[in-house]
Amino acid sequence: MDAQLHALSDATRRRILTMVWREERTAGEIAAGFAMSRPSVSQHLSVLLESKLVAVRRAKTRRFYRANREAIERLRSELEALWDNSLDALKAQTEAAERGKSGR
């Protein structure tokens, strides 16, 4: 999860992920959407690949990048569980505080 959160901490990588969410794209197509060099875009793609948020399919000499929806869903579930646990803890603390007030 740490690698995925790190990957998502960068606005460029979030934008790339949005670009490959609906359809796979080549590195050139992705790079065309940015005012930066292709090597810079490739570095961002490497981070996304290492975090498993993006997958790649090779066809001859071309690479097609797409969002790894399963990995993103797992991350969402983990974050949701953290959020739910935090809300449960807050609820328990609030209820304990209310019981303490009514016991006075």
What would you say this structure looks like, in words?
- This protein is an alpha+beta fold.
- It has one domain: Winged helix-like DNA-binding domain superfamily/Winged helix DNA-binding domain (Arc Repressor Mutant, subunit A, Orthogonal Bundle), CATH 1.10.10.
- 68% of the residues lie in helices and 13% in strands.
- It is built from 5 helices and 3 strands; from the N terminus they run ααβααββα.
- Strands 1-3-2 form a 3-stranded antiparallel beta sheet.
- A hairpin with a 2-residue loop joins strand 2 and strand 3.
- Helix 1 runs antiparallel to helix 4 and helix 2 packs across helix 4.
- It is elongated.
List keywords for this structure.
single chain, 104 residues, alpha+beta, Arc Repressor Mutant, subunit A, three-stranded antiparallel sheet, 5 helices, elongated
Uncertain regions spanning at least 5 consecutive residues: none
> What is the helix tally?
5
Portion of residues in beta strands equals 5-15%
CATH superfamily name? Winged helix-like DNA-binding domain superfamily/Winged helix DNA-binding domain
Rg for CA atoms? 20 Å
CATH architecture: Orthogonal Bundle
- The termini sit apart by 45 Å
Oligomeric composition of the shown chains: single chain
CATH topology: Arc Repressor Mutant, subunit A
How does the overall form come out from the CA principal axes?
elongated
Number of strands: 3
Query: Helicity level, as a percent range?
Result: 55-70%
Structural class: alpha+beta
